[in-house]
């Protein structure tokens, strides 16, 4: 498998609902012995405060950055296939915010790669979350992410 480059089969930043089935189908491969999936959902509280609304905004190049991250993580873990989708816009509690999947030759590699993929997306892809709480307070999450538009 080491001579096989990972296939980044699906990477999107979109303003419509996400599908776990779509992401799993994107990484389906006969060369994979294990597929790991992560689904991030909007929760109703954060740091002890009740969330009344949540909105994601993305830099215009966010999808390109996410593709680069997916390719890098896939290559490091000899993934067969990688997919990642992230939602933007106004989301409700319970909505899917992000879905990632990695298919590898072995399950242990798939688990490690999927965890690294979501962690790297959160750290490096310029997508910002604005939460509003019941007391009217607003908190931005991920706003410290910097972007070089020349990348």
Please render the helix and strand layout as text.
Blueprint: E1 7-14, H1 20-27, E2 34-41, E3 45-46, E4 49-58, H2 62-76, E5 79-87, E6 89-91, E7 96-104, H3 107-124, E8 127-133, E9 138-141
CATH homologous superfamily caption: Molybdopterin biosynthesis MoaE subunit
Structural class: alpha+beta
Q: What's the total count of β strands?
A: 9
CATH architecture: Alpha-Beta Complex
The biggest beta sheet is recorded as: 5 strands, antiparallel
CATH class: Alpha Beta
Strand content: 35-45%
What sort of overall outline do the alpha carbons produce when their principal axes are compared?
Answer: elongated
What does this structure look like?
The chain has 151 residues and is an alpha+beta fold. It has one domain (7-41, 58-129): Aldehyde Oxidoreductase, domain 3, CATH 3.90.1170. It has helices spanning 20-27, 62-76, 107-124, and strands spanning 7-14, 34-41, 45-46, 49-58, 79-87, 89-91, 96-104, 127-133, 138-141. The strands form 2 sheets. Strands 3, 4, 6, 8 and 9 form a 5-stranded antiparallel β-sheet that branches. Strand 3 (45-46) and strand 4 form a beta hairpin. Helix 2 (62-76) packs antiparallel against helix 3. It starts with 6 loop residues before the first strand and ends in a 10-residue tail after the last strand.
Provide a short characterization of the protein structure.
The chain is an alpha+beta fold. The chain has three helices and nine strands.
Keywords summarizing the entry:
4-stranded mixed β-sheet
